[in-house]
Amino acid sequence: MSTTHRHLETLSLLQAHPGISATRLAARLGVTERTARRDVAQLRELGYRIDAEAGRAGGYRLASGRTMPPLLLDADEVAAVALGLRTTVPVDGLEAAAVTALAKLTHVVPSRWHTRLTALADVQAQPGQSRRRADRDVLIPAALACRAEEAIRIRHRRHDTADATPTDVQPHRLVTLRQRWYLVACPRGATGWVVYALDRVDHVQPLGTHFPVPEPPSDAAAFVSDTVAHGPWRHRVRVRVHTSADLVRELVDPSVATVLDDGDECELRLGTDDLDWAARWLAYLNLDLDVIEPTALTDRLRTLGRWLLDRY
User: Fold this and answer.
1) Average pLDDT along the chain
2) Contact call for residues 186 and 154 (beta carbons, < 8 A)
3) Among 84, 60, 78, which Cα is nearest to 12's?
4) Which of 27, 110, 227, 271 could form a Cys-Cys staple with 233, CB 3.0–4.6 A?
5) Class of domain 3-62
């Protein structure tokens, strides 16, 4: 690893692990403790403010600085980068990286620019998008905890009218789905992973530890889509569609329903609390299909058909 690469990795570790000791920093970099301390000293000479605390509980912390080397950007360029991080269409696998990048940018720019970055961080979603969005004071610490693999305590509401309850979880990944943020995490002592909607979380507290957890989902985005589509609903819907699965997948959002291959045909599975909505949605797809379950959905489709005939 080159010195430049090691310096960048040191900055990344200081950001992800506030209070990291020289011993642990050296181990993560694969160098001696003396080299790690020398790298920190060189970064200070470059203008980075790195605070150090003595003692067993002490360590290095990357503090806000008056300059921003080696980011050779002026105020307008920094604003453009920040705005892009907040408003760009999410890139698969880079959603959490955009949040932590904004946190790092805010951390190192001159203090006189903080007001501008704070204003840009509060940019609203585009018209027509969901207004349900996670608070940045929830989103940023959750993203940093995922990167640092650090357990957190969250206050989460299961429903809009429910009270928020504290839960200790080991975070794995942040995922965006249909303009909403979700956290894949494992509660303390649990044997399975859970999906939390971040707009229902009002507080995140780092715990400075790591819980033992089962193997995480191999595809966090697919895990969130499947969870949102199938749980916990009053009705489980299964429909036989008389066309190819590939065609149906082009029409169906994976967060709404799952498409299962079955030769030249396929099966559509989804969950809902409203069978009337399911009937309207299936009619909208304009596909040749038969209801497998529940039988009540067949009655709703017939009622919808009669209403359309009477109306038009």
Assistant:
1) 81
2) no
3) 60
4) 271
5) mainly alpha
